[in-house]
Design a protein that fits this description.
alpha/beta
Length: about 170
Amino acid sequence: MKGFADLDMVIEKAVKFSSAAQKAFAERYKNEEIIYVLSSGSSFGTAYAFSICSLMEIQWIHSPTIHSGEYFHGPFETTSKELPVVLLKNDGPTRPLDERAESFLKEHGGNHTVIDAKDLSTGLFAPEIRDYFNGIVFSLVLSGYLNTLADERKHARSVRRYMWQVAY
C-alpha cells in the first residue's frame, strides 16, 4: 500500500526527469517507418501497448514488440546501426535480460534508446515491489514521449485512417 501512496510522487519525478529525453527521442525517430520495442517482466505489457497503440495505431509506425528474453531467438539478427530500437529496461528480476539486450545493442546497434526504470525513480519503491510499478511508471512517461513524437511529426494523436472513420 505504501507503493501506491508513493506512486504519484515517483511519476512526477519520472516525468520531470524524462522531459529532455523526450525531445531528443522525437527528433531522432520522427522520420522512422519502423521502431522495435523491447522489454521484459512487468514492463513487457507496457512495451506492447506502446508498440501497437502509440506507434502503430496513433503514429502509423510499424513496431514489433519483442521480449528481451526472446530477442536472441531470431530478432537480434535484424540488428544494425540503422535499426531503431527502444528498450524499456525493467527494474526487477528480469533486468538481466534487458541488460543483455542493451549490451548487444551497444556493440552491434547504434540507433537505440534505453529508458531505464531506475532512472525514473523506481528505486524509491521497496525492492520487493518495484517490479509491480515499472509498467505504470513507464506508461505515463511514454505518454510524454508519444506527445512529443506526435508534435515533431505533425501527426496529432487524434488522427486515424480507419478507427472511427469506417466500419470494421
